[in-house]
Amino acid sequence: MKENVASTIVFILLLFLNINLLNGQSPPGKPEIIKCRSPEKETFTCWWKPGAQGGLPTNYTLTYHKEGETVTHECPDYKTGGPNSCYFNKKHTSIWTIYIITVNATNQMGSSSSDPRYVDVTYIVEPDPPVNLTLELKQPEDRKPYLWMKWLPPTLVDVRSGWLTLQYEIRLKPEKSAEWEIHFAGQQTQFKILSLYPGQKYLVQVRCKPDHGFWSEWSPESSIQIANDFTMKDTTVWIFVAVLSAVFCLIMVWAVALKGYSMVSCILPPVPGPKIKGFDTHLLEKGKSEELLSALGCQDFPPTSDCEDLLVEFLEVDDSEDQQLMPAHSKEHLDQGLKPTHLDPDSDSGRGSCDSPSLLSEKCEEPQAKPSTFHTPEGIEKAKNPETNVTRTWDPTSLEGKIPYFHVDGSKSSTWPLPQPPSQHNPRSSYHNIADVGKLAMGTAGASATLLDKTDKHVLKSSKTIETGGEGKAAEQREVESFPSKTDQDTAWLLPQEKTPFISAKPLDYVEIHKVNKDGALSFLLKQKENSDQTEKPSAPEHTWSETWISILKIASMTH
Amino acid sequence: MDNKGSSLKGSLLLLLLLASNLLLCKSVASLPICPSGAVNCQVSLRDLFDRAVILSHYIHNLSSEMFNEFDKRYAQGRGFITKAINSCHTSSLSTPEDKEQAQQIHHEDLLNLVLRVLRSWNDPLYHLVAEVRGMQEAPEAILSKAIEIEEQNRRLLEGMEKIVGQVHPGIKENEVYSVWSGLPSLQMADEDSRLFAFYNLLHCLRRDSHKIDNYLKLLKCRMVYDSNC
User: Fold this and answer.
1) Which residues of A429-446 are buried (b: 16+ CB within 10 A; e: fewer)?
2) Is B218 close to A211, i.e. CB distance below 8 A?
3) Residue among B50, B62, B88, B98 with most chain A CBs within 10 A, to mutate
4) A292-302 burial, b for 16+ CB within 10 Å, e for fewer?
């Protein structure tokens, strides 16, 4: 029974409690004192934070007692500091004294107290921000402008008696900048800023700190617009300079446009191209060697009688025999010539490239053009110089397909260009020249290949077809036919002298070597040297082609 | 012979000058303007007060830092503050407790009060340094500050005596000060008690240095700047 009663009571109590809890009612939670501050070291305020409400209206009280006293006081002012605060006025404030403060929360259900807080006003001083911040832009005449800012200490703080000593700090920034520029101002209530950007709007703030306390909040922003005026002078100068430069540039452009080319040529004179006196590249391009050569001062090439210097080499042949070599008119020779294909450099054989007449055509077909470094101008020049190496005499241009002596034209009837008496004689050494000539021919052939125009090629081709001697004439004829008007030019090949070379058993005979055709076929003209008397016997030419060759070969063998 | 004698005299003079210069230099450090013992040296009151205020401000800063360091290092969670109520040996000196009281007191009395407080701290500071040095793991920061405070306190006392000599010449006050009897507490075996003794001493030092600083600033503004700082 007793147990039942006890349990019942407990049950009821619990029920009661539960009902209360269900309703949300409970004693108040423990409040907490957050902060106590004094703005001037003469008064102070404390704020607290309520605990859990407990669902019932709660009454808060603040009680305190001071160091050295036993009496407990209650907060004199709950209002001035706002809700949940207690304001201690001057009368109730003692410095260098510890306050022990407690907040009590009470509601219907019960009460609770906060932990006591020990407060010494000496160390909780945090003033208000300074006031009356004024900004002024000063522009002394001979100095840079600066920003002059002034402010006043917060109203409550007593600085004049020395009760509090304040130190200040200012900060400023251009309106759009993100970072503040902070300056410590000490105990003065003014400050000068010298480094300013013109045309900007500046924001300025100031705050203060007591000698042994906390920094205040920043004052509200003051702004000032920095004018551009004092840079006007610089700007004007720059604009002036810019305009002048623009005008100058325009004038220059106009002048260049007008004068244009002449100015350019004045500044950059054209570079003259390489030029040979009397040599016109245009003619060369056109392929008119005749004109070209005439421009050089040489009437025709091979050299005619006029150009005594322009000589082909003379092959001196030591001819003991009484040979009558074929005069020039055997045109057949010309084509085939001696193909100097396998000329030995040291061969004095005079065989040239071909040893036997029968082989002549075959062998002589082989060599063909071995390109050498022959240029037109060079050849011509060398040709002018009879003393030069044989190899040089031939002008590749002359080779231009026109087998020179196919000049049908009667003016120079002798197909064999008469050799000019060479200025020098090279007895016995003659065949050496042939070899060189062969080379020359080959080289020339190659070189001339580039120079030849189509017709020339055609000619050569046809010349090649000349195989055997028998065909010679026919080929020659063909060749002759294939030569159009160019033959005139080809007279260049012809030696100036038109004397039919007639070698009559003389000790030294000259072989006049011409480059006949592209193939490098040499055509010789055996000539009698010194035959200046010129026992010209035009009648000689009745020799056959083969005879001529035989005689040549004989000569060649003899010299060996 | 004459030349020798004169040269000897000259060198002696030089030596004397040199020595006196050295001595003066040394003394200059402590009293740059008036050599000790000089009676007719007149430094302006303004300069005296400026220096005094600088010293007092400096001493309080040191004391505050020293207390904070000690509190952080040794006194956390021990609830020393609850016990350090009304336990300063200088509380017997009736000092003004707020601005009004301070402004009502006569400047001479205030000056004397400052002197008394300063004198009251000579002994405790001396022992504080000795005891901190003897502590286990003597904290260097606290020790160095204690040494500095002791020295500066002595200098401030000298300066204040000069000021009083100028403001109140001729009157020699009895040297009244509060006697400190906390030495045994600093030497207690119980660590907790000993630490509390230190805590209490540092707490009182912080407070009194603040008082001195405040009073001197008030006096300076009143006497030198005519209450228009």
Assistant:
1) ebbbbbbbbbbbbbbbbb
2) no
3) B98
4) bbbbbebbbbb
Helix, strand, coil percentages in chain A from 3-state DSSP, rounded to 5: 35, 20, 45
Written as one letter, the residue type at A114 is S
Residue A159: list chain B partners with CB under 8 A.
229
- The span from the CA of A120 to the CA of A68, in Å, is 13
Residue A89, C-beta contacts closer than 8 angstroms, at least 6 positions apart: A43, A76, A77
Q: How far apart are CA A142 and CA A132, in angstroms?
A: 30
Question: Which residues on chain B are in Cβ contact (under 8 Å) with A44?
Answer: none
CA distance A460 to B67: 123
Residue to substitute from A42, A67, A96, interface B, most B β-carbons within 10 A = A96
B101 touches chain A (CB under 8 A): no
pTM score, whole prediction: 0.56
Mutate to test the interface with A, among B57, B210, B215, B223 (most CBs of A within 10 A): B210
Nearest CB to A160: which of B60, B85, B229? B229
- CB contact under 8 Å between A95 and B229, yes or no, is no
Orientation angle between helical segments B140-167 and B191-219, nearest 10 degrees: 30
Q: Which of B 151-210 lie inside 8 A of A, CB atoms?
A: 207, 210
Angle formed by the axes of helices A430-451 and A376-384, to 10°?
A: 150
CB A98 within 8 A of CB A59: no
Q: What is the pLDDT along chain A (560 residues), one digit of tens a residue?
A: 788 888 888 888 777 766 666 666 788 889 999 999 999 999 999 999 998 877 788 899 999 999 988 999 999 999 999 999 999 999 999 999 999 999 999 988 888 999 999 999 999 999 999 999 999 998 888 888 899 999 999 999 999 999 999 999 999 999 999 999 999 999 999 999 988 888 889 999 999 999 999 999 999 999 999 877 655 567 788 899 999 999 999 999 998 888 766 766 777 777 887 777 766 566 666 655 565 556 555 555 555 555 455 455 555 555 554 444 444 444 444 444 444 444 444 444 444 444 444 444 444 444 444 444 334 444 344 444 444 443 444 343 444 434 434 333 434 444 444 444 444 444 444 444 444 444 444 444 444 434 344 444 444 444 444 344 444 444 444 444 444 444 444 443 444 444 444 444 444 555 454 544 545 444 444 444 444 444 444 444 445 666 666 677 667 677 65
Point out the residue among A118, A122, A162 whose CB comes nearest to the CB of B81: A118
- The number of CA neighbours under 13 Å toward the Cβ of A468 is 2
Instruction: Nearest chain A residue to B62 by CA: give it.
Output: A212
Beta-sheet pairing, A181-186 with A166-174 = antiparallel
Out of A93, A165, A212, the one facing B98 most closely (by C-beta) is A93
Query: Would the CB atoms of A122 and B210 count as touching at under 8 Å?
Result: yes
* pLDDT value of residue A343: 43
Name the β-bridge partners of A186. A168
| Measured CA angle at A386 (ends A394, A399), to 5 deg | 10
**Half-sphere exposure (Cβ direction) of B46: Cα atoms closer than 13 Å:** 4
Closest-CA distance, B134 to chain A, in angstroms, reads 31
Strand partners, A102: A63
A146-152 β-sheet, strand order: A131-138, A146-152, A190-193
Chain A and chain B share a number of CB contacts under 8 A equal to: 66
In angstroms, the CA A49 to CA A34 distance is 6
User: Is B223 in a helix, a strand, or coil?
Assistant: helix
Through-space distance between the first and last CA atoms of chain A, rounded to whole angstroms = 169
Residue A226: the pLDDT is 86
What's the confidence (pLDDT) of residue B168? 80
